[in-house]
Design brief:
106 residues, mainly alpha, 3 helices, flat
């Protein structure tokens, strides 16, 4: 029975990793992988602010208050650039495919 539980746990971890973009899906775009890596880096930096603030004492409690919004702004600016790139890629691909779809239908 323990092997069944271990297998389920491995599947659970694998599914979570795929959700963050660490799967081997060939359909996942490069921009999606970059966004996943950016999200993980920002989350790690935000979580590391808590022990750093605790080490500084009560004066350090203000650090996360100012750092977390700046980390979120950094994440959103990165995602905005990636969204722009996705839109440009989609437009380029549509220019190649659109003649097949919008041509005369006989």
């Amino acid at each position: 029975m323990s092997s069944i539980r271990e297998h389920r746990a491995e599947l659970f971890v694998a599914m979570r990793l795929r959700r963050f973009g660490f799967g081997r899906n060939p359909l996942r775009r490069r921009a999606d992988r970059l966004e996943s890596a950016l999200l993980i880096a920002i989350l790690a930096a935000g979580l590391l602010m808590v022990p750093a603030a605790a080490a500084l004492g009560t004066a350090g409690l203000a650090v996360p208050v100012f750092v977390w919004p700046s980390l979120f702004a950094l994440y959103r600016s990165g995602v905005r650039r990636l969204d722009r790139r996705r839109a440009d890629d989609w437009a380029r691909q549509w220019r190649q495919v659109s003649p097949r779809w919008t041509g005369r239908q006989y």
